User: Fold this.
Amino acid sequence: MNLILLGAPGAGKGTQSKLLQEKWNIPQISTGDMLRAAKQAKTPLGLQAETFMNAGKLVPDEVVIGLIRERLAAPDTARGFILDGFPRTVAQAEALGGLLKDLNRRLDAVVNLEVPEAELVERLTGRRTCSSCGTGFHLVFSPPRQAGVCDRCGGSLIQREDDQEATIRRRLKVYLEQTAPLVAYYERAGLLRGASGIGSTEEVFARLSSIVGGLSIAGATG
Ligand code: AP5
Ligand code: MG
Assistant:
């Protein structure tokens, strides 16, 4: 099952792709997580990406395409993958098409998580993430049992540097200008499936599971 999870910043791509990864046993591939890990490790790539990320801008296409090229070659993607936060420009979508062709693989679906802008800002300003295991929380919608402490591993919860309101607005603008055109791009390719990202995490996951379940049945019979 080869999937893209498309959606604005805060739409729930990370939350839902982690759940899909557990249920379907295929890896979540998040370019945002990969870039943040590189940034934290202060690798040359991380240092290059940092300025763009902190400003709420996209990292140059060739950098993220290089990351994905390497990641898709890893053996754990053989049964499938869930792309979270990639592609984000038409150039990235075209490069992905070329990479998959070379690997003799194809996309099964592009699921677009739809959430209104006011809700996106609320979700992002309240987001907290475990610095140790990466589990996501929200101060209001899914608060930790103890403030600042991860329920799962006891690690400390941090706020992402790009989750300040001014940077959030910038990311949403960049999304509308550079990433939203991918909705029409994948619709033309006959791959797009729209899904409301409103409701509880469980309700949204039930919607996505039914889309992915339908694809897996179609794949098994067709
Ligand atoms: P990236 O890490 O991909 O961030 P993003 O796309 O801005 O999306 P987010 O991770 O902020 O949101 P999400 O949709 O994952 O939401 P989440 O599940 O966390 O990219 C960061 C930066 O890296 C970019 O700005 C760019 O600089 C660079 N980058 C990355 N990929 C790139 C690429 N391909 N090309 C160029 N540059 C790239 O949920 C958000 C919050 O809401 C959480 O607190 C969660 O608990 C809560 N929540 C989730 N679901 C619900 C629900 N149903 N109800 C209530 N709350 C909910
Ligand atoms: Mg994310």
